[in-house]
Amino acid sequence: MTVSALARNAYDQSTRSTANPRAVERQLLARLTSAIIVTEKKRDEDLSSFIQALSKNLEFWTVVATDVVGEGNKLPSELRAQLFYLFEFTRKHTNKILNQDHQLSAEPLIEINQNILRGLQGQPEPA
């Protein structure tokens, strides 16, 4: 089973456990973001946990990207394109950290996730 299929399976199981998919997305994204924040602070001592946190975050974004390009997705096309762009950025930045520059910050990934979380909670973007 591919990473994408595993991520989708885990995501689908989570969504079935509750009546509110938006709440599940929010909870999952909050956990992923927290994991990146915590593990990045200790990346010199525990690089494998940091890599795992980044990988799980990328799995989430892969599921999002797969969903937004699907024909059955009912989000407005502009929002779908924006979410796909965020996936592309997340994928590229994560790969740079994992493959090329181990000192590169995960801060852009954290900011993306936090902005999406605010959107899922219906909060405006900070000034």
Automatic annotation (TrEMBL):
Source superkingdom: Bacteria
UniProt entry keywords in alphabetical sequence: Cell projection, Cilium, Flagellum
Matching InterPro entries: FlaF (IPR010845)
Protein name: Flagellar biosynthesis regulator FlaF
Organism annotation: Hyphococcus lacteus
